[in-house]
Amino acid sequence: MTDESVGWTDRTVQKIRRLLPERQIIIRTEGETSYLRLSTALQVGAITVWVAVAGWVGFTTVGFQNQQEMIAEKVDAISRSRQAYRKLLDQVSDYQLSIVGITRDLKETEAHLRGLFSQNEELKQDLSSTEVALRSSEEERNRIASARKQMNDQLELFGSELRQITGKNNALEAHIGTLRQHLAVVEAEKAEIAAERAALDDRLWSLHNELEASNAKVALLDSNVRALKTDLRTVILERSAVAVDNDTLRAQVVDLESTLETERDSHRRDLREISDRTHGQIAQVEDVIRRTGLKLDKVVPLRKEEATGKGGPFQELAPDMNLSEEDDALRVELEHRLQRWSQVVDFYASLPLAKPVTNYYITSYFGRRKDPINGRYSMHNGLDMAGPYKERVTATAPGVVSFAGRRTAYGRVIDIDHGHGLVTRYGHLAKIKVKVGQHVDLGTTIALLGSSGRSTGPHVHYEVRYNDKPINPSKFMKAGTHVQQQAENAE
Q1: Model confidence over 376-388: pLDDT tens digits?
Q2: Model pTM?
Q3: Which candidate in 42, 230, 382, 397 could, as Cys together with 352 as Cys, close a disulfide (CB 3.0–4.6 Å)?
Q4: Can you give the pLDDT at residue 320?
Q5: 79-108 residue pLDDT tens
Q6: CA distance linking residue 429 with residue 453, whole number of Å
Q7: Half-sphere exposure of 356 (CA within 13 A, CB side)
Q8: Are residues 436 and 404 in contact, defined by beta-carbon separation less than 8 angstroms?
Q9: Distance between CA 306 and CA 191 in Å, rounded?
Q10: Architecture of domain 361-490 in CATH?
C-alpha cells in the first residue's frame, strides 16, 4: 500500500468522523440515569443498513411491477380463451341447426316415399285396366280373322260355282257387284282395324315403357322398403335390448332405493348421535365457562334462530330430494347445535385456564386484603404466586402481547389479549422475553419471575380481566383443573 492511498484513507475516515461524531443519549427512568453510546461505526452501520433496506425496497417494487404485467398478460390470455370458448359454442349451435335441417329433410323424404307408394298403387290399377283393354282387342282380332276365313271360304265356293255355272253370268253379275260392295266395306273395316291396331300398338308400347319405369320405381321402393324393414328389425332388437336394460335398471333402482332407505336410516341415527354428542360437549364447555365466574348469557349469548326477513323464488325439490319432517327437524336441530358449538368453542379457546408458573404457592388471594407495604386495607385484583427467582412464567392461553414494559406499581409487566374481551396480566417480572404484537401460544415462556416494582419478594402478580374488569383468577385455574381431570377420566 502506498503513502498516497494511506493518506486518502485517513482523510476519508476523518471526514466520516466529522460528519458522524460520537453521540450519547441520556435515559432517565424512575430516578436512575443511563447512557446510550452511539459510536461513529454504529452510525455508519445504521446508514449502511438503511441504504440496503432502501435498495431492497426498490428492487421489490420493480419486481412487483413486473409481476403485475405478467398478471395482466395472463388475464388477456384468459379473455382470449373465453372468446374461443364462445366461438365453439356458436359452432355447436350451428351443428344443432344443421341436425334440425337434416331431420326436416328426412321427414320430407318420408312424405315423398308415401307419395310414391300411392303412385305405385295407381299404376297397378292402370295396368289392370290396360290388360282388360288388351284382352278385348285380342277377342276382336280373333273375330275379324274368323270372318276373313269365312269370306275366303265363300270366295272359294263362289269360284267353284262360277266354274260350274258359266252360263249364269248375267244372273251372278248383280250378285258379284253386291259381293264387291260388301268386300269394299270389309276392306274399309280392315283398314280401320289396322289403324286401330297401330294405335293400340303405340298405346301398348307407351304402357310397356311406363310399366318398365314403374317396375324400376317399384324395385327402388322395394329396396327402400327392405332397408326400412332392416332398420325396423334393428330398432325392434334395440328396443328389446333397451327393454331388458330397463328391467335390469328398474331392479337396480329398487335395490338402490332399498339401500338408500337403509342409508337414510343409518344417516338419521348418525345425525342423532352427532347431535346428542354435540349437545353433551356444548354442555361440558358451557359448564367450564360457568366455573370461571363469567355469565354465560353475556359472554356467549344465544344466536337468533331465524331472521325477520324471508323471501326468494320458489324452486320445488326433486322427488328424491324431499325430506321428511323428522329429517328436516333433525337437520335444523343439528345446524343450531353445531352453530352453538362453534360459538362456545371459539370463546372456550381463549379462556386462560392454565397456571402461569409450575412451582408456586399463593401469598395473596383475589379481593380485599391488607396492603403488604403500608398495612392498609385495599382491593387486590389478582393472585400473588410466589416461587423461585427467575422461574419460567408461561402464557395461560393463546393470544397477542398488547403491552410489555414497566409500570410504576407492577414493575416489569406483560398484558396478553386473548380476544373476546379477555386479557391476562403478569407483573413484578425479572425479565421480559416477548414483544408487543407477538403472538404466543398456550405454555409459551413469556418472562422470568422476579420482584420488580412495588414488591416485597419474588412472585408473579397474575390478573384475569374481562372487558377491563378484574375477575378472580382462581376460578379459571380451578376450571382448568376440572377440565384436566375430565380428560384423565376419559382416558
Answers
A1: 888 999 999 999 9
A2: 0.45
A3: 397
A4: 45
A5: 787 787 677 777 767 766 776 777 777 677
A6: 9
A7: 32
A8: yes
A9: 113
A10: Distorted Sandwich (2.70)
